[in-house]
Amino acid sequence: MLAAGGVLVALALPALGLHTALPGATDLRVGLPVLQTYNRIQEAFPGGPTPALVVVEASNVGAPVVRDGIAALQQRAMATGEMTEPTYVRVNPNGTMAMVAFPLVGNGENAASAHALSVLRTEVIPTTIGKVAGTRVNVTGMTAGSRDFNSALKQRAPLVFGFVLALAFVLLLVAFRSLVIAAKTTVLNLMSVAAAYGVLVLVFQHGWGTSLLDYPGTNSIAAWLPLFLFVLLFGLSMGVALLE
């Protein structure tokens, strides 16, 4: 028991460094020609392939006050140094929505891009187009989508974990009429899932054992995978426990 538990704990420790993000260009193998071309474009036009998109909704985005707000948005954004040219504005045929693109500094996934997004949301928008009455402003794009998904995951994942663990415990308690068996099985299943997370980090983030596949690892794990993996692995382990 001690040996098996020690192995599970050791495998689970790397999971503390789990980093999630939406899949992007940085997940590709460094030597790929397509990634080399992408990096050259990124160097020439920072943030161009993955800009932050500010979406402005209003009854008439062509109204002078809204146009002035968008112009102020562009001017203020460029003045921060956190966004680069080229920036452009597109308006839908109904004139009720305008999309303003801002290339962010960084590669779209690193800390520099995250900081630029924060500046755009908390400093630039509230002092420009956000002050215009009758408008609603949202920010999307790869960087915003990745950060928002991770934020939602961090808020909701504990609820999912807690619900699944509690339900599993009650199910085992009813099935075996034993607090010890229910508690032990739940804890061991949780440890096995944590160990799977640790192996996931070692293999895909750190590239352990992937040299045979010519795969150097990635900077992050797909944001949807940890929660999906938890539900799947825990469900399988619970099924095995009940069958036994």
Could you describe the 3D structure shown?
With 244 residues, the protein is of the alpha+beta class. Helix content is 57%, strand content 10%. It has two domains: 116 residues, no CATH class; 90 residues, Ribosomal protein S10 (Alpha-Beta Plaits), CATH 3.30.70.600. The chain is built from seven helices and six strands, in the order H-E-H-E-H-E-E-H-E-H-H-E-H. A hairpin with a 5-residue loop joins strand 3 and strand 4. Helix 3 runs antiparallel to helix 4 and helix 5 packs antiparallel against helix 6. The radius of gyration is 24 Å and the shape is elongated. It starts with a helix and ends with a helix.
Please name the defining characteristics of this protein:
244 residues, alpha+beta, Alpha-Beta Plaits, 2 domains, 4-stranded antiparallel sheet, elongated
